[in-house]
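Pilot study result, target chain (483 residues):
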Amino acid sequence: MALKQQQELKQTQRLSPLQMQVIKLVELNSVEVEDRIKQEIEDNPALEVSDSGPAGDEDENRETAEEILSQEEIILGDYPSEDDIPDYRLNGSDRKNETNIAEISYYDDKSLSDSLQEQIGLLKLDDHRQLIAEYIIGNLDENGYLQRDLQSISDDLLFQQQIEVSPLQLEDILYEIQDLEPAGVGARNLRECLLLQLERYESTPAVKHARKILLDYFEEFSRKHYDKIIRQMNIVQDELREAIREITSLNPKPGNTLGGTMQTAMNNITPDFIVDSYNGEVSIQLNNSNIPSLQVNRSFSEMLKGYSGNRESMSTDDKQAVLFMKQKIDSAKWFIDAVKQRQNTLQRTMEAIVSIQYDFFLTEDETRLKPMILKDVAERTGFDISTVSRVSNSKYVQTNTGIYPLKFFFSEAMQTNSGEDISSREVKLILKENIDNENPVKPLTDDQLTKILNEKGYVIARRTVAKYREQLNIPVARLRKKI
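Predicted structure:
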């Protein structure tokens, strides 16, 4: 087979450093952008906070820098290679998108690990057991559970720390950890977590029954097969009810207790947008209170200008210094532009969302929310769908009555019998309302819920009702049943 050479023209799209900056900054919320700006100012001597605002001196410095750079490019040319372009790694920009507000942590309190380390230090274990206890604590997940088996931890200690300890010895130390606060920490599964908490309760008849249910009938309890439990334990319904009340009062995620309540978390959220409604009008404000105006450092520009005036007598070291300053000024200019473009992108995106959901922001009535997907906002702004998605993730908007994640305003369309488009959020509200008001002894099945919605004029199938119910984190009817 003969080899041959041939030329081919091909178009490829490459992002400029500025575009890369903008994309990464758009992903960040206002708190993360503030931290990112502080980091960039520390790393780049050519960048500084502007005391006189974004206009004026900044523009003058920029023109001076452009003039100097054009002269220096004649001397040095562009960057020798792509490897010499400054690196703009943004802290936190690789994190996964959070769409569920309940899964986001905004707590500054002492961590679970720190608390347990302090408590284990008070037990006065010998150095060997202390080290093993700290290693076990390091393997607990955010909910306080030990998800790894003891044999794997034993192997890790042997290979990583050269500590030989059997799973049985590890279990003895784990029991020490399980005696710490919060109750239930260090459990290896839900049943053990609940039992550890019950052990600290006064031994009343209800607690004894609850303990027996968890020990011997946990599967039946999970599936709410209450009749079977009553028969096999030979107890009456009131006794079972009291035992279940004890169990359901326990905390299935003890590791989360140190962070505070969800209300505490909400109070610590910094909104990226502020939307006010007053006298029938809605106003939008981008929350820039902690984001400073930036400019190119004048002293740095003057220093570069001084080098430029003596370019004929420049040494190799001087040229390297000029190249360094040129790169830093480029970096500062790109960063300033990227911050401005980020603000513009966020503002236009929020304006489009408010335009579509104007009735909601005017009344804050969830039933007034309209169907809206990323494509709808992209068409109004002229941005790509991926850009709108980046803006929508991890951003929050403050209204007159509360704080909402931006994702809250997106929902798919549903139709009524009359052909009217409505938001699926409205259907979910009606679905939740019916479940909240159902008879707990005979909870509504998905078929019954579908029939109720159809009678109200919503064209919806049973499988869609099941999907919406799951999205609302509501279990099936059998698991909602109470006695």
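One observation from the pilot: Residues 266-287+343-409 form one domain. A full batch analysis is planned for the follow-on phase.
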